[in-house]
Each structure stands twice: as C-alpha cells, then as structure tokens.
Design goal:
Length: about 190
C-alpha cells in the first residue's frame, strides 16, 4: 500500500471556467504538467477526483467529458507526465437524467471515489494527499484521513478568505498553485 496524490480537476489542474461545456474551455494551468511529472518520477500515483454535476444537469454530454479527459492526458503527456486514474462523480440530486439523480457516496466531500481508487490502485489513504481549490476537497481529505492541501488557484483564494475561517476542517498546507503544493508534498514525504 502506497501513498498517492489526489487532485481535484477544475481550478487545480485546469482553469476554473464554471462548467467545461466545450472542449475549448479546458485550459491546463501553468506548471501543472511539470508538477505532476515530479510525482511520476518518484513513482507516486496521481489520481484526478472530480465532481461533474454539469453532466447530471444536462449541460454537456458524457462524450464531452471523455474528450476533455483525453485532452488533459494528451497535454500532460506533452510535458512528460501522466495520471494513474480519473474518478468522476456524475451525480446530483437535481439531475436532469434519472440515472444521475442519486444521493451517492462519491460526490465530494464524501469519500467514495477515493475509496474506489484506493482499492483499484493499492493506495493507503491515510498516507495520501488531496489537493484542491474548494473546502469540499479538504473535507474529503479529512474523511480519508489524508492530508488536505488548498491551492489558491480556481476558487481557492476566495474560499480561503471567506469560507475557510469558519470551517472546522483546515488545510495542512495552503499553496499558491499545484507546483508549490507538489513541492510541499515531496518535502513532507522526505520527512516521514
């Protein structure tokens, strides 16, 4: 069982655009491929874990979600990086399609996607890290007993200033972006 780094997608890996309802709206953030490559070089699994309620709400088709992830993987590969898994929650209580209208255990801040990834990839959640731009990511990290890192990209800066002070769960580290988060994770792993 090994530690892994779980990454939120929108606002952490790519620019926060609201719903990515067209392939052109997916824009990788600067430094992301290089940061993920550092983890790859250390053979630390990297897993994208993302809520995609836009699918449930009918804002875009399932096929677009596949295209977006293909584009993400292609752009990462161009930087010599890869992710070891992509786990998606397509559910929402107000979903347009009944098959997505669930009160599931996978929508962050719940930890169902993390548990699934841990089983599939042989990951020790308690030695892992969750990086995201929302407090739901930090709460999911807490449920997994992983270390939660808030990035100030996407919604992060606003969440940190206006939502964070009232929250019981607090980040283990606050990073400017994924690059700084990965550097902190690697230093933390070296200190263990």
């Amino acid at each position: 069982m090994k530690p892994a780094v779980f990454l939120d997608r929108d606002g952490t890996v790519n620019e926060q655009m609201g719903y990515i309802n067209h392939i052109d709206r997916f824009i990788l953030l600067p430094g992301v491929a290089a940061a993920i490559k550092k983890l790859n070089d250390r053979e630390i699994p990297v897993v994208v874990v993302t809520n995609q309620s836009g699918l449930a709400r009918g804002y875009f088709p399932e096929s677009l979600l596949g295209e977006v992830h293909q584009k993400m993987e292609q752009q990462l590969a161009e930087g010599g990086a890869h992710v070891d898994g992509i786990y998606i929650c397509p559910h929402h209580p107000e979903a347009k399609e009944e098959k997505f209208r669930l009160n599931c255990n996978c929508r962050k801040p719940k930890n169902g996607l993390f548990v699934d990834a841990a089983k599939d990839l042989g990951i020790d959640l308690t030695r892992s890290y969750v990086v995201g731009d929302r407090w739901s990511d930090l709460k999911a990290a807490n449920q997994c007993r992983a270390k939660g890192i808030l990035v100030l990209t996407g919604y992060g800066r606003g969440d940190y200033l206006y939502i964070g002070p009232e929250q019981q769960v607090q980040p283990h580290f606050v990073a400017e972006d994924l690059v700084e988060a990965v550097d902190w994770i690697l230093a933390d792993l070296n200190n263990r």
